[in-house]
Amino acid sequence: MSGSGGPEIFDGTVFAAGYWGSGGLDRLGAYGGGAAGGTPATLTGTLTRVGDTVSAVIGGVTLTLRAYSDIAVGTVFTTTDLATFYVFTRVLFDPAQLYPLSYTVAGDSGLSCFVAGTRIAAEGGEVPVERLRVGDQVQTLGRRGLQRVRWLGRRRFRSAAAEAWPVRIRAGAFAEGQPARDLLLSPDHAVLAGEGLIPVRYLINGATIAPAPMPQVEYWHVELTDHALLLAEGLAAESYLDTGNRGGFDGERGAGASAEQARRIWSAHGAAPLLLDAAEQVAARRHLLARADLLGHASTDDPGLRVVADGGALRLRRDGFRWRATVPPGTVGLRLLSRSAVPAEMRADSTDCRRLGVAVTRLLLDGCAVPPDDPRRAAGWHAPELGLHWTDGDAVLLCGGEDRPRRLEITAAPLLQYRLRPPPPWRLAA
Q: Which DSSP letter does residue 143 get?
């Protein structure tokens, strides 16, 4: 989909296709995964707005895909059941790259809202968002003070796929009383963070801010006289700004708007700058990570590696970040199990949204190297990198089932921090 608002023709065009995985998103709005370079695919159809469908041929299989969002180098599609996402780019797909969604186009999915039950500061006190009515006065930050509700939008997901799950902001995640209680927002809902508004999907840290899986969810949005910052459970979050996505709500119609048109609307009417560039978000992300540490969300560089042979755990002899074990005779395959983490959730300046386990730098079987491109490294391995090969936390090493004991040696690099068990709930509001 082009930013000019006109249709983009895909008839017979060959793309580099990046496949995310079966089952949805690991981190909402951050697309990656798949093999380096992607898989060639042919798309046929015409796109004019979010929701349009095209026919895709990938590896000889024909699929019907629905346009979901623009990204800087192409388009994100989803299967019609919203279960699987595909990234189609005009350049070779990079599995280590973060491809952030266009905020305004992603908004056409209707996912920029408060979860039902969220308490909004109003003239007479806090009111659950679904109990607000047109004409009510609500509190806003700054000189605008009380503003009148002019429209309320609702959307229900009765069988919510991963991209529809809300994001939970734990009490005290930003500061004391901000929010005062856990706050649930849709992934694209922007909150005041630092010098501007940032969609909450970009603030996920796996501790105080994380996806909240739900089988069904009801979302509401509140439009005021002017775009402003509401107080939702005590945290400053945006009111609704019509950038062409009103049709995503129940009973509403909307023709949609191009990304460029939406950006112009935001520039003219937004209550604060919208910070979508990763560099603009670093300070806010760093503050949230420091706050998570203060609230007791500890981390470690120990991957907690375990090796399981055909169902039974091996006895590991550890020396620093080197593990040795004896593999029993007849073992067909080993599973390398470990903690896992998303670098972008652990480091403020990272845009790597892969879920990573152990950074294996050397893998020996009977004293012989098993190189990164060896087919014995089966499922659960990311694309090899210079000098290391990441697992995803559950990687398979095939051993061949030989009738003799074998010697295994694994060396890894401590390149990642992993979240430990969160503190008790009572500490989250400290």
A: G
